[in-house]
Amino acid sequence: MKEETKIWLKYAKENLEAAKVLSDNELFNPALQNIQQSIEKSLKSLIIEFAIGLKKSHSILELKNILDTNHIKIELTDDEIDLLDSIYLPSKYPIGSALPNFYPDKEITNACLDIARRVLESVELMLLKK
């Protein structure tokens, strides 16, 4: 595995750990931000490892499409991608909650944590098999 890939994975794991700590302390909006960042960095680690060419994007959909185009499959449903992409800007800036129509809570944060864990585990497994 490339050294740069290892660094991206380390940061993805740190974001996931931070999200757990924040969620445990009922800081759901910043937890969601860290969840989104964990998934984004996990996907970017694959782009780096497989020398696809890293594109500056925070869109989970765009990153997944880049991977799909290069025959690297990550299991994320359209609904999961929509949810994750709805988190990025609103969770970084005080323009309302991270999710449309309601404020983030434990239930949605836990669901997103599960997605992030699944993606990170999938990415790590893919990189081990490479």
Give me the secondary-structure topology.
Layout: H1 3-24, H2 28-49, H3 60-69, H4 78-92, H5 106-129
What features would you highlight for this structure?
mainly alpha, 130 residues, 72% helix, Four Helix Bundle (Hemerythrin (Met), subunit A), globular
Give your account of this protein's structure.
- With 130 residues, this protein is mainly alpha-helical.
- The protein has one domain: Nucleotidyltransferases  domain 2 (Four Helix Bundle (Hemerythrin (Met), subunit A), Up-down Bundle).
- It contains 5 helices and no strands.
- Helix 2 runs parallel beside helix 3.
- It is globular, with a radius of gyration of 14 Å.
- It starts with a helix and ends with a helix.
Q: What is the structural class?
A: mainly alpha
**Strand content range:** under 5%
Share in helix: over 70%
Q: What overall form do the CA principal axes indicate? A: globular
Count of separate DSSP helical elements? 5
* Number of structural domains: 1
- Main sheet record: none
How many angstroms does the end-to-end distance come to? 8 Å
Give a quick precis of the structure.
With 130 residues, the protein is mainly α.
